[in-house]
Amino acid sequence: MKVFAHRGASGNYPENTQSAINAALDIEVDGIEVDLQSAKDAYVIIHDSWLDRTTNGRGKVSNYTMSQLKKFDAGSGERIPSLENLIDWNNNQTLLNIELKHTFELINLIEDIKNYLSNGKISQENLIISSYDHHQLKFIKQQLPWLKIGALTSSIPIEYAKFAQELNAFSIHIDKDFINQAFVSDAHQRGLKVYAYTLDKIEDIELMLALGVDGIFTNFPATTKSMLQNMTR
Ligand code: G3P
Ligand code: CA
Fold first, then answer.
1. pTM tops 0.85
2. In the chain, at which end, N or C, are there fewer CB atoms within 10 A of the end residue's CB?
3. Which contacts (CB < 8 Å, 24+ apart) does range 174-182 have?
4. Helix (H) / strand (E) containing 6
5. C-beta 15 within 6 A of ligand 1
6. Domain limits at 36?
7. How far apart are CA 206 and CA 203, in angstroms?
8. Is the minimum distance from the CB of 33 to ligand 1 under 6 angstroms?
9. How far, in Å, CA of 58 to CA of 56, rounded?
10. For residue range 138-180, what is the model confidence (pLDDT) as tens digits?
11. Pocket residue to mutate for ligand 1, from 198, 199, 208, most atoms within 8 A of Cβ
12. Rounded Cα distance, 73 and 87, in Å
């Protein structure tokens, strides 16, 4: 079962920052999940569309330029990373799951992705774009058919994983509180990976193992990795 560092190793470091990303890389996680927002002139790594919760800034991310955003403290003196920072820090070491939040003008994102690929900064295998906005996923997949997309859901639809198959998704990223065996089996039959978020407790990890999910998102990747090793020994 893959272990994704959720917002980096965000249980021990400020979420979606360089220290959280480096800590996840240091322990050789299978993947790192981060959140993407549109700023005025760049894509930036931050969960909320507002600066208030995770930084000392105020207002909406989309009202600022990258250089203005860099002045804010994102926790312990960290700066809000740009998408380019993330790609550089990762240096194609692990799988990046970039979750689209309030992102717009996706054509620019598509161009950025193409450039990162052609410059060898990341490989196709090491990138998943996920979102709750399935319209955006559909659009991106039309532009970049090779791209792995992850359909986010916090529900168990009547037709289970059919929506994700129709999107030609690689994976479904599902809330740990809305998952069951029928859903996991249906997704697997449709050739989809199932990744569950967000779980740190041993009981939840055991349950996901029993359900046969393919990966989990955790805020404490080091602890989760060692718990998993003990369980599967
Ligand atoms: O991508 C899985 C998970 O991160 C979705 O929820 O709110 O933590 O971004 P959230
Ligand atoms: Ca997320």
1. yes
2. C
3. 176/204, 176/207, 176/208, 176/216, 178/153, 178/154, 179/208, 179/211, 179/213, 180/156, 180/211, 181/211, 182/156
4. strand 2-6
5. no
6. 2-231
7. 5
8. yes
9. 7
10. 999 999 999 999 999 999 999 999 999 999 999 999 999 999 9
11. 198
12. 21
pLDDT of residue 145: 98
Beta bridge mates, 5: 32, 218
Domain count, the chain: 1
Average pLDDT, the chain: 98
**What are all long-range contacts of 200-206, with beta carbons under 8 Å and residues at least 24 apart?**
200/11, 200/224, 202/227, 204/176, 205/231, 206/231
**148 three-state secondary structure:** strand
* Catalytic (active-site) positions: 6, 47
Handedness of CA 172, 176, 179, 181 (dihedral sign): positive
CATH of the domain at 53: 3.20.20.190
What pLDDT sits at residue 231?
Answer: 92
Average pLDDT score over residue span 11-22 = 98
At 160, which amino acid appears?
A: Y
Structure tokens at 74: 């994102």
Residue with tokens 């349950």: 207
pLDDT (0 to 100) of residue 87: 98
Q: Which two tokens stand for residue 113?
A: 């992705």
Q: CA-CA distance, 88 to 116, in Å (whole number)?
A: 9
Read off the pLDDT of each residue in 23-50 and give the average, rounded to a whole number: 98
User: 77-91, pLDDT tens digit by residue?
Assistant: 999 999 999 999 999
Question: Distance from the CA of 138 to the center of ligand 2, in angstroms?
Answer: 19
